[in-house]
Amino acid sequence: MSAEHIIRHLQLLPHPEGGYYRETYRAVPTVATPEGHTRNVSTAIYYLLENEDKSHFHRIKSDELWFFHQGQALEIVLLTDGQMYRIVLGNDLAAGAVPQAVIPANTWFAAHLPTGVGHALVSCTVAPGFDFLDFELAERAALIHEFPHLTELVMQFT
């Protein structure tokens, strides 16, 4: 199944960070955040990257879980504690891929297809639930200032 077919069939829309998405679930119960805001307990989306699409560096105020469904392996790049970490999300467990991954709250992260060819369909769940008010797209200069030793990587994903 082509990326175009999946985008059309699942009614995915362009995402501000890159790729395509559609919210599929928003829990009715709510919870108060440490900042005093109200958020749904949990949310879920479909998310698709194709070819050279990227999920640019961003962070949110909640934990996010990623679940691989189909297509090519997806590489998630995380910046935390002054270091860079990579997670390969996919089906090839023997090659080190994992079918699900956790991105801790307030962690800068990005994603792409390492080969730049094909597509990856994943789902992401966020708890407490996602709200665009909790979404921060990285500014290149600020991220380079925070991670000067990773300037090339920051340039690639901002």
UniProtKB/TrEMBL annotation:
Coiled-coil blocks: none
DUF985 domain sequence ranges: 5-138
Q: Which InterPro entries match?
A: Cupin_DUF985, RmlC-like_jellyroll, RmlC_Cupin_sf, YML079W-like
Highest taxon in the source lineage = Bacteria
CDD domains, per this entry? Answer: cupin_YML079wp
Q: What name does the UniProt record give this protein?
A: Cupin domain-containing protein
* Organism, scientific name: Hymenobacter cyanobacteriorum
